[in-house]
Amino acid sequence: MDRPTRMAALAGLFVLAWVAWSQPQPAYTEAAVYVQQARYDLAIPLIEKILASSPRDLKARNLLGIALLSSGRKAEAGVQFQKALEIDPGFRPALKNLAVTEMELDRQKPAKAHFEQLLKLVPNDPVAHLYMGEISFTEHRYGDAVAHYEQSGGQHLKSPAVTLHYARSLVESGKAAVAQQVLEQLPPGSDAESHFDAGMLLAGAKRYDAAARQFQLAQNGYPDQYQVGFNLIVALVESHNNAAAIRAGEQLLAQGHRKAELYNLLSRAYEADGRTQQAYDALRAATQIDPQDEVNYLDLMSLCLIHENWDLSLEIADVALIRIPQAYRVRLQRGAVLAMQGKMEDAEKEFLTAAQVAPQADLPPVVLALAQIDMSKFAEAADVLRAHRASKDYRVHWLLAEALSRAGAEPGSAAEKEAVAELQQAVRLNPGASQPRVLLGKMLIKRGDAAAAAVQLEEALKLDPEEMSAAYQLAMIYRDRGNTKRAEELAEKVGKARAAPDPSQFAHRNLVKIIREGSK
What we know:
Blueprint: H1 3-21, H2 26-36, H3 40-53, H4 58-70, H5 74-87, H6 92-104, H7 108-121, H8 126-138, H9 142-149, H10 160-172, H11 176-183, H12 192-204, H13 208-218, H14 225-238, H15 242-254, H16 260-272, H17 276-289, H18 294-306, H19 310-323, H20 328-340, H21 344-357, H22 363-374, H23 378-386, H24 394-406, H25 414-429, H26 434-447, H27 450-463, H28 468-481, H29 484-496, H30 506-518
């Protein structure tokens, strides 16, 4: 029996109990017993006989509808409930069962209207709330769905499918922790597919520990053992349970699942577990299995960058570009390696080539401009970024302002106004980035607008408490304003910090981070 049929049966038997109690005639009682026993072939003729002599017998007609619905004759059941309501529009059992039948017939709109009508008559009806929860879920009105489910008298927790709908509604309503608690108490005997779906929902909500437990439960019976095993490893890696992730990954490999994505995932677990050589080997295996997937080369090069293995990183880039000449992200990563080696002109050439290979992508001009800023080629950097001014990538606007500022934009000049406008756009596009706010604060200070500057610098410091440049500038502002206490707090923070970053290392500090973020 599928979920809707189980729900219909629940609703029907609820009504049946009421009508059986309130109708003592022997023929009716006998028919009700047959319905309860699922002997519809005996029940239906007997009820029809009752109705032949008493066509306005509401309870008999409702019982006939229940028998027809339970036997799969849904359209005929709907006719009987409609006839009952024609006799008495306020007959609640028929109204409820008509709505249930309409759901069975995929007629959600009239079903919704009838359930809403029923709830006006019986505000606490659990079956109506259960179905209204399902209707709200399909309409993506998740807050309403949660409210209805929670008024269903616990019936939403009796079916794994409905419980999953309730949990998803909770997640979509910002209540992931409650959803986790709900899914950890799935009905006993829930099938492997339900546990897998629960794991996927929890992983999507970043509740990785709980997701891993669901995937482990799903392993017993899920038809695609690789799929459930792979997702288990993802959850274990994301929850930093690397030893368990490695065991699960090696088990899949032993079962013959030699897939590039599996080796790539295992490499993350190996590296996090301090097994760097195995991480290298896993990524090399991934590139051999799928030589056309640039992600594995990029991850292998990133691993080299982390361990400052520059030569190997360049060798990997050369192999990747032979196999995938248009892999502009590989060129960007290769340029980053060259930059780390101090070969900025060679790095600039790689970034320029990447920009030519992928003219519509935002990342190549960002990285190219970053290198040019590091080389004091401010005008060239500004020109590159102006060509991408329509971009929604905040870094395009931030770095354009950086280039203009470093070129010596004076307060009131066209260049300075352009830079401030670009920084304001960067903040709008990504309010969570601290660097555009710091530069905007500095430029506002030069304009003489200390109050507006303080707002930006305070927000930057909130986003990145280690942003010492913002702390220093704020200390100066508060000292000038006479807020000695706050100025001293900030000055002390700056004094305890390590030496300020060397401005000449601007590209080196940001290059790898930007490329890595853009390659995801």
